[in-house]
Write a structure and sequence with these properties.
CATH architecture: Orthogonal Bundle
Radius of gyration: 14 Å
Helix content: over 70%
Largest sheet: none
Structural class: mainly alpha
Distance between the termini: 27 Å
CATH superfamily: S15/NS1, RNA-binding
CATH topology: Helix Hairpins
Number of helices: 4
Shape: globular
Strand content: under 5%
Order of helices and strands: HHHH
């Protein structure tokens, strides 16, 4: 789980203001951070199938958000990919 401070940092970095959690960029950044933490957890707990399923669901949700952002505004899509060091 993300700490409160980490969430606030991501919201300030990618949102329009301190309470803008609805922007796709903020949601993608939060999912990415949470996925990193969950991936580390799964490296040590290989049989944790519940969290593995949660990680797969997060990957799917992030992919959908990225696809939406790509269709709506390609510049914002490229910026978030570069800021989070994601593919492409």
């Amino acid at each position: 789980m993300l700490s409160k401070e980490k969430k606030l940092e991501l919201i300030k970095r990618f949102g329009a203001n301190d309470q803008d959690t609805g922007k796709p960029e903020v949601q993608i950044a939060m999912l990415t951070e949470h996925m990193k933490q969950l991936s580390e957890h799964l490296l040590t707990n290989k049989k944790d199938n519940h969290n593995k399923r949660g990680l797969i669901m997060m990957v799917s949700k992030r992919r959908k958000l990225l696809k939406y952002l790509e269709h709506v505004d390609i510049q914002r899509y490229r910026a978030i990919l570069q800021a989070l060091n994601l593919r492409k």
